[in-house]
Amino acid sequence: MAQFEMIAFDADDTLWHNERLYASAQARFKHLLMQYHDGEWIEERLYQTEINNLKHFGYGIKSFALSMIETAVELTEGRISGQDIRQIIQTAKEMLGAEVELLPHVAEVIPVLAERFPLMVITKGDLLDQESKMARSGLAAYFQHVEVVSDKTEGQYARLLEKHSIPPHRFLMVGNSLRSDVLPVLALGGSAVHVPHAFTWAHEEAEPPRGQPGFHALEHLGLLPGLLDALAQQGA
Amino acid sequence: MAQFEMIAFDADDTLWHNERLYASAQARFKHLLMQYHDGEWIEERLYQTEINNLKHFGYGIKSFALSMIETAVELTEGRISGQDIRQIIQTAKEMLGAEVELLPHVAEVIPVLAERFPLMVITKGDLLDQESKMARSGLAAYFQHVEVVSDKTEGQYARLLEKHSIPPHRFLMVGNSLRSDVLPVLALGGSAVHVPHAFTWAHEEAEPPRGQPGFHALEHLGLLPGLLDALAQQGA
User: Fold this and answer.
1) Cβ contact (<8 Å) for B57 and A96?
2) pLDDT, tens digit, for every residue of A78-100?
3) Structural domains of chain B ordered from first start
4) List of long-range contacts for A128-131, beta carbons under 8 Å, 24+ apart
5) A98-126 mean pLDDT
6) ipTM of this complex prediction, to 2 decimal places
7) Which of B36, B49, B57 should one mutate to test binding to chain A, selecting the residue with the greatest count of A CBs within 10 A?
8) What is the pTM assigned to this prediction?
9) CA nearest to A91 within chain B
10) Which residue of B148, B209, B216, B233 is surrounded by the most CB atoms within 10 Å?
């Protein structure tokens, strides 16, 4: 197996914590609405609103905030208070300003890998938010490119690989989402490492493609250099 | 003067109508709140909220929607109805789905220029919204790159020029905003063509840098090929 020309990383919940910000915002949201409905129903309606709004608003915190507001109006039949709406907007601002906390092993592994491979980041979400988190993460210097994309489909990956002149079989993607980081890359003939995260949004879940060529799963990012060594030896 | 290696265009209100969508949304917003305040005060508070929120939410329709909601809560001291909040969110969805209407001369001029120069688009706003408008505009095939950026500062332009290996003095930017499309490009030693648009957001206004080398102003995009011919002759 040839060494990789580019290793790309997802950012949210691969390099740094993210989903727990959403979980905590959702807990506050449920608390706001608990006089109207039970928690499970609130969660289900919010999720449905988010999915319906993806085509309008895309991914990210601003989209999530608009979906929370829409769900709050709907679930209270318009009786939500202005004060509660203000709190939802305030929650969104706090999420956007939250400290960027790297996941375990990231601070050690990324600099080591950057000496051996060109690295890039491929992430969804709001442009300004992702750029700001990258700047605050202390990792920016290790990545040659940061690509914020509106969705992570096979077509989007194909365009990125073409733009950067990377042959798919020399490309490795590392991330926590089977749906966004693994399956579309394998479909293009690339390799992908799934590093599961304790919290993963239901929308990102999929069946692991066990046994498919190019698919690897690791418990945490600290194991990535060892996997790359093993793959290089197999190729030798 | 050397011919340009790259001509870049702003998108909103340079290639297609945009600000009038905001103006019409703002008119609906004022109508919602007219029982509470007079129009001028509503406009002023909305503008202040938008400016304060730029650092959190950046540019684009989602950010505008969140600022309208925040302003509505504030100006009604929390008495805004759920129904009115729903209407603001609905307005945002309609803006995102609005027909892309090219400005005069764009459909004729862009294909002609694309035969003579590499063209690209550099635009602010939401990634998904800008990609979707570009796809619907019918112009995508004429642009080698579409760059959606979180802000149009001198630093952002410097990074883009480096990324695409374009020397500043061989770069021409065309757009309707002096603040975003003209001044930062001139500061880098590039050239810029200002094509004013009837509606320009107050935040984008600035003093025209008349007489500064590399600065040009045109009444409409139809005059751009003639300007490029004149500049090429001066350089010969």
Assistant:
1) yes
2) 999 999 999 999 999 999 999 99
3) 6-16+100-235 (3.40.50.1000), 19-97 (1.10.150.240)
4) A128/B57, A128/B58, A128/B150, A128/B151, A129/A60, A129/A61, A129/A96, A129/B58, A130/A11, A131/B150
5) 96
6) 0.91
7) B57
8) 0.91
9) B56
10) B148
Strand-strand pairing, A145-148 and A171-175: unpaired
Buried b (16+ CB within 10 A) or exposed e, A115-146: eeebbbbbbbbbbbbbbbbbeebebeebbeeb
Angle of helix B61-75 versus helix B82-97 axis, rounded to 10: 160
Q: What Rg do the C-alpha atoms of chain B give, in angstroms?
A: 19
Query: Could you tell me which residues come within 8 angstroms of residue B180 by beta carbon, excluding any fewer than 6 positions away?
Result: B10, B124, B152, B204
Q: Which of A126, A160, A163 would you mutate first to test chain B, the one with the most B CBs within 10 A?
A: A126
A6: left (phi over 0), alpha (psi -120 to 50) or beta: beta
**Dihedral (C-alpha) A55, A61, A62, A64: value to the nearest 10 degrees?**
60
Of B62, B79, B150, the CB nearest to A57: B62
- pLDDT tens track of chain B, all 236 residues? 458 999 999 999 999 999 999 999 999 999 999 999 999 999 999 999 999 999 999 999 999 999 999 999 999 999 999 999 999 999 999 999 999 999 999 999 999 999 999 999 999 989 999 999 999 999 999 999 999 999 999 999 999 999 999 999 999 999 999 999 999 999 999 999 999 987 777 787 788 898 899 999 999 999 999 999 999 988 75
**Any idea which residue has 């051996």 for tokens?**
A116
| A225 in Cβ contact with A112 (< 8 Å) | yes
Q: Looking at chain B, which residue has its C-alpha nearest residue A124?
A: B127
